[in-house]
Structures are given as C-alpha cells and as structure tokens.
Design goal:
Two copies of one chain form a homodimer. Chain A is mostly helical. Chain A has five helices and two strands, in the order ααββααα. Chain A has two domains: about 80 residues, Orthogonal Bundle (Multidrug-efflux Transporter Regulator, Chain: A, Domain 2), CATH 1.10.1660; about 55 residues. In chain A, strands 1-2 form a two-stranded antiparallel sheet. Chain A binds a DNA duplex through helix 2. Chains A, B: This is MerR family transcriptional regulator.
DNA sequence: TGTTGACTTGAAGTCGACTCCAAGTTGTAT
DNA sequence: ATACAACTTGGAGTCGACTTCAAGTCAACA
C-alpha cells in the first residue's frame, strides 16, 4: 500500500477539481473509461486517468459539452493537433462558435446601452433567440 | 365580434414570437397577468398585453431570466429609465454581467488559440467554472 | 465486537424554461 | 347531426450535467 499504488477517487477529485460523484457519473456515461479496482472493489486511478480528468476540467471551462469533448480525451496536453486534422477542425469550429457568442453578446450590450443612455428600447428587438447550447464561463 | 375586440392567443403568439403554450406558461408562473376571457372562456389579449409580451421577448434575448425581468414589465418601451433608479441599476448590473461574460469568452478564445497555434493546452487551465446562469444569444 | 470512515451501487431529484399530451368544451360549417 | 378547428385544463416529459439519497460492503482501529 505505498504511495506509488495510485490514487483513490477522493484524491483524484481533489487533484482534478471534479467531485467524486462527478467522476463516477463520467464513468457511467462513458466519458471516462471503467476504472481499475483494488481488491476491495474501490476504484483506483493512475497518472493517465488524472490527465484525462484534467483535460475534461479544462475543456469544460471552454464551454464544450461532455459529448463534444469525447474525441479530444485521447490527446496529451501538448500533443500536436496538426497530426489530427479532424480534431483541429472541431476545435476551430468550437472557437468560432464562441466568437459568434461574443459578437451576439456585444449586440445585447449595445441594445442595453441604447436603453440606458437614450431611454429607447427597440420595438423590434433585433436579436436572435438564444441557441440551445452555448458556452458559459466566467473570469477567474 | 369586430376586429377591435382583441386578439386570440394564437394571434398574440404570432405577433410576439412566443408560442401559445409559452404564453399560457407565463401566465401560470405569474410573469403575465391572468388574461381576460371571452364568454367561451378563451383568453383574449389587448394591445397592452402584446406590449408586455414583446418586452419579454426582447429581454429574453438579452439573456435575462424570467424572474429577473419581472420588475421591468410595467415599463413602456420608451419610458424614461432615469425615473426608476432601481431598474436602471438592475439593467446596468445586467449589462455588466454580460460584459464579464464577453471577457471570459475572450479568455477561452485565447486558450484555444494557444492550442491551435502553439499546440499547447495549459496544464492549469486558468479559467473559472461556468456560472450557473449566464445569457446565451446569437446573431440574427 | 462494534463503530467509524471510505467507498460501493442504482435510482431518484434538481435546475429553468419550456413542450407535449390527453381529455374536455365551445362555436362554426356542412 | 356531425365533423372540425380553436381553444381549455392539469399534468407529465424534456434537456444536460450533475447532486443527493438509501442501503450495502469492506478494512482498520479501540
């Protein structure tokens, strides 16, 4: 039972900013592979597992959905994306979605500013419906 | 039964870009007042009702939650906000939330760009967790 | 021996904002 | 008479990403 044997789910949770429940949930929905078990059926995690979890944590912060991030989880942090043109394309697309989101939010700011300064709220509020799934994040 | 008698829920839905179900739902949760009824118990709407619904449609597009928009629904489109300092303050706060959202999304763009151009995904992905409720909208 | 404490499981509950459904009523057209 | 459309109601279902719960297992410690 030395320190080299791996990490408990609690330790994994601490290191990855996920909760234990969330880790089990990710395993259940197939985002994480089935974890190795100790003799007592407790899950045990190794460095590679933590790397994937940290990648999830990071991609989640970029507003990517759990489904969308599945293809990326095989990559190491500094693996060369140009070797995977499809992933590169997906990431570029994700970036463009976010850029569109920024543009749209800027339009909203303009509408609000118009109301705040000129007192006028446009009759036809020329903004589109919110899309079903857009990233949400916040400054640290 | 002339054209001056008001609007059916279907007509209201058409004019406000809400669905009939949504209008009934808004009434149920108290976002809209209880509608007048015709003799046959059908809801009937007047100009003022449509104005409120359009205001909802507009505020929704700015990412405001149904709860948050309740205080604003008494205002006409061009009523002077400076007469209502609390509402002005709320709207300013809403705007600042959106601005923070933009800043945060810009950070995400930067992280993704770093990966796309230098191939490096930061170990510590220095972005905060998504907040529970942030606006989502899209360009028209 | 008994009681923690860490872990296990499957299932149910949460959030907001709808959306859909089935059954019923009313008014009009054929 | 009868079909049909438009509306009514209460209630259930949906979405994603968890969170919470109850009940069980297992090893270590007093």
């Amino acid at each position: 039972m030395g320190e080299t044997a791996g990490f408990t789910i609690k330790q994994a949770a601490e290191q990855t900013a996920l909760s234990e429940d969330t880790i089990r949930y990710y395993e259940k929905i197939g985002l994480l592979p089935e974890a190795d078990r100790k003799m007592n059926r407790h899950r045990i995690y190794h460095g590679e597992d933590l790397r994937v979890m940290k990648m999830i944590t990071c991609l989640k912060k970029t507003g990517m959905s759990l489904d969308e991030m599945k293809p990326f989880l095989g990559l190491t942090n500094d693996s060369d994306l140009t070797a995977y043109p499809d992933l590169q394309q997906k990431l570029l697309q994700h970036k463009e979605n976010i850029q569109q989101q920024i543009d749209s939010l800027q339009m909203i700011i303009d509408v609000i500013d118009t109301k705040l300064t000129s007192g006028r709220m446009p009759d036809q509020c020329e903004l589109a419906e919110p899309t079903k799934k857009m990233p949400r994040a916040q400054l640290i």
